[in-house]
Amino acid sequence: xxxxxxxxxxxxxxxxxxxxxxxxxxxxxxxxxxxxxxxxxxxxxxxxxxxxxxxxxxxxxxxxxxxxxxxxxxxxxxxxxxxxxxxxxxxxxxxxxxxxxxxxxxxxxxxxxxxxxxxxxxxxxxxxxxxxxxxxxxxxxxxxxxxxxxxxxxxx
Length: 156
Prior knowledge:
Layout (H helix, E strand, L loop, with lengths): L3 H35 L2 H38 L5 H31 L11 H29 L2
Helix pairs in contact: 1-2, 1-4, 2-3, 3-4
């Protein structure tokens, strides 16, 4: 007879990771490049910014699912196991949480800054440079979070 409780918590954990990884790939590797090729930069950003905000809220729920699933697995089935891989999994989850907090903060800064940007603002404007700086950091943080999620998946 299958252990339905374990299966349920493992499903919760893996579903959270699937939302995190799949959403990041779908938005970052597929949607964003096509959107920014098809539209002017300010229009594409006006569309894609709110999408990223909604994805951040989804990642909060996904992280909650991951923590509940991993926590239950640890408390009921792994608490007496001594394994560095469990520590790697939890380090990856902590890194994902940190990345989510930083990403939400950067999105807020970019949203405020983008209100000052328009099509007539030159590329060498300090406001545009500040926005680009935060954008590059946000991309990097998203990539780190996906790599951490992959590690959390591998060591599940």
